[in-house]
Amino acid sequence: MDLSTLLIFIGAIVLLIIIHEFGHFAAAKLFGVEVEEFGIGFPPRALTLFTWGGTKFSLNWIPLGGFVRPKGENNPEIEGGLAAANPWVRIAVFAAGPIANLITAILLYSLIFARAGVPDPSTTFIAGISPDSPAAEVGLMPGDVLLEVGGVAIDSSATLQDAIAENIGLEMEMIVSRDGETLAFNVVPRETPPDGQGPVGFSFTNPRLPISTPESLSLGSQMTFFQIREIVLLPSRVIGGEVNPEDARLVGFTTMGRMFSIAREAEVDSGYPAGTNTFAFFAYISISLGVLNLFPIPAVDGGRILFALPEIIFRRRIPTKFENVVNAVSFLLLLLLLIYVNVQDIVNPVDLTP
Known about the structure:
The protein is an alpha+beta fold. It contains nine helices and ten strands. It has helices at 3-30, 87-116, 134-138, 157-165, 213-239, 253-266, 276-294, 301-313, 320-347; strands spanning 35-52, 55-70, 118-119, 125-129, 145-149, 152-153, 172-178, 181-187, 202-205, 208-209. A hairpin with a 2-residue loop joins strand 7 (172-178) and strand 8. The longest helix has 30 residues, at 87-116. It starts with a helix and ends in a 7-residue tail after the last helix.
């Protein structure tokens, strides 16, 4: 990984964490809960950056983490503190961090769609020609719009593939549009093309159409929902044997950095606007950060929400001492898991070859 990629990766991860913590901070402020400290990284504290609105903003020694410390977070006897607040307020504050990450993902995906547009499935054109292929021999060129293949009008990529498959080993006519001119070529699709090539030897794609801001936001929301569903269903798919456990293992910052580096390299020949893979990568990381924090695990936001629910349902609060002990032990276990996952990244790296 080169220096610029490393700096972008670290900066973006830190920014996603800050966005998460800002969600908690903004919700606490909105509901009148004082926030004593907004920390970038985990303690011990390295330095205090500044103080604003009664909140101390600090930089801490353990990197790639963050926290917001509301007044009276774990003590309901402190008047005006978070623990003393209405359970609905506590749930809103705990949920606001993950929600901020999910909103960030929607905006990133929306930006991708706004910049790249959406495919026009009714039109298919040649994107690339393989050397020494039937397509190259007859003079087909990148950019040629496919009109007819084997007498079949091409109105989708599926129609193109079916038309070629029906003419394997047979001479067929391909009619294309090139710079406003209609041209015809006779070509014979190969029965056994080389690895990585198709029968005719060209790759194809669809032109992309610009879309409005509301449309891009709608598509960004749909993409985010799809990714949330995939993450939530992943454990059941592993248990059911649909997904190899090795493919679903937790990864740390080293593997994430390698994945980001590969995504950046692939972006060069992707045909999409610069930054598309970068935005998509961090949209997925933001979704993962949001969803995993909503899991009902003590010490994370979902676990804190879980402890607040009995007060709403049964009008009885779980003893504060019990909640604090469970959260403290769980936080320690999660920290150990984080260390283990990142060590595994180094000693037993994930195979990222396609």
